[in-house]
Amino acid sequence: MNDFHGTDHDERLRRSLGIDRRRFLSTCTAAAAGAIAAPVFGASPVQAAPSSTGHGKGQTLVPADKRGIILYTVRDATGRDPLSTPLPSGFRAVFEQLARFGYRQVEFAGYAQHPNAPGGADLENVKGARLLRRWLDDNGLRAQGNHGFIPPSWPLSREDLDTYKRHLEIANILGMDHMGTGADPTDSPYRSDWDVAADKWNTLGEIARRAGIKLYTHNHDAAYSFLLDGGPLDDQGRPTRSSGIRRLEYFLTVTDPHLVWLEMDIYWAHVAQYKFRTYTAHDGSVRENIFDPAGLVARHTKRYPLFHAKDGVVDTTNGQGYEMVPFGTGVIDYTTFFTRVGHRTYHNPMVEQDNAPSSTDPGQSLEYARIGYRNLAALRRRK
Q1: What whole-number distance in Å separates Cα of residue 136 and Cα of residue 372?
Q2: Are 345 and 67 within 8 A, CB to CB?
Q3: pLDDT tens track for 231-248
Q4: Is residue 1 part of a domain?
Q5: What's the domain count of the chain?
Q6: CATH number at residue 56
Q7: Is the pLDDT reported for residue 29 higher than 60?
Q8: Once rounded to an integer, what is the mean pLDDT over residues 49-73?
C-alpha cells in the first residue's frame, strides 16, 4: 500500500489545498483503506493492489496516459476568484494541480471561469481555446472531450448549426478526439422518440466526423430503463409495455457506429441496475432482467471510448441504491468492470464526483480529485 504520510510532496500539497494536517492525513488513510461492505445486489469493494505495470496478472488496469478527470468534479475551483484565496483557482492553476496529482487527461464541462482568472470569464471562443490548449500542453495534459453544446432544435436551425460548428472548431484547437454532452439523447420512454433522436444524432455525428471529431452522448440511470415499444396503447396512442430492451441499448442499434459514440457513467449505470430490474412484457407478464453494465460495454466495446469513473456506497433509502463518494472508497467493483470490458488502451476513464465541491470546505473537490487519481492508478488485474 502507498505511504500517504510524511513526504515533502504531500506537505506541499496539503498547504496548496488549504487543508489542516490532521484532516489531510485522516482522509488519505481512509482512501487507502477503502474497504466498505458490498451491497446485496452484487458489487464488491475496490481494493488497492501491489504495484505492477507488467503483463498478465497484477497488470495495471488503467494505463497512466488514460487516467483522466472531468472538470465538473472541480467546478468550484475553476470558477472561484483567484484574488480571494490562495487555493488553485481558474483553469490554469487547476490544470497545474491536476497534473501534480498525476492526471494526464481532462474532460471539459464548458469553458467558463471566474472573470479574475487568467484569460477572463469566457473562453468559449477561438482565442480562449488557444489559451486553454497552451495551458494543457504546459502541464502535459490532453483534452479528451467536453460536455458542451448539442443543438436542441430538430430539424436544425441555422443558428444552432453555426454554434455547433463553432464548438467543433474549439474542440479541434484543444486537440480533442471527442465532443459530447452530459445529457441523454432524449428523456422519452417511447421508441418513436428514440428513432427521432437517432436521426438527429446520426446527422450531427456526420458533421462531427467531417471535422475529425467523434460525437458522444453521456448517460444517466433513466437511459438504461426499459423502452416502451408495444402492447396496448394508452388514450394518446402510445405503447404501454416493453420488449425488454433498454433505451440506450436500442439507441445503439439505430445509430451509425461510425458516427455516434457513448460515454458510460458507470455509477448511474449501476443505479439503473438497482432501479430497473423488471418490466411488463407485451403480453402483460412481469419479467426480470438485471442490467449488466460491463456486459453491455463488452458487447459494444468500441462504442464506449469514454467512461465516468464515479463511486458510491450503499444507500437503500434514497431510491437509487447508492450515495456518491470519492472514487475508490465505495463499493462499485471497478477491478472487475475494467477487466471485463477489455481494450485497456482504448477506453478513457474520467474520475467524476458530482458532490465533490463543498460550501464549507473550499479545498474538498481537489482533495477528492487527488484521492480519485490514487485509487484509479491503484487498480490492478486480480491475481
Answers
A1: 20
A2: no
A3: 999 999 999 999 999 999
A4: no
A5: 1
A6: 3.20.20.150
A7: no
A8: 77
